[in-house]
Amino acid sequence: MESNGYPEEGGIAVRLRQILLELARRHEDIAHAEAAAVPYWAPQPTSVSGHRAAASTLRFEADRLLLPAS
Which domain holds residue 14? Predict the structure, then answer.
């Protein structure tokens, strides 16, 4: 991310990325717990897919913070 002369911007981007990755990890943990509570032969609850999609989106957004600003 481009700093535009403000040194704290880089730190904010790093912290925001950490928060997004932590949220993604929590969504994955919830998805795993919900999937584990269902017998292997039963369909997974739709919330499992939702949590996994949320985690994927959060990781994508976190990775976008690594790209230089255009």
Answer: 8-64
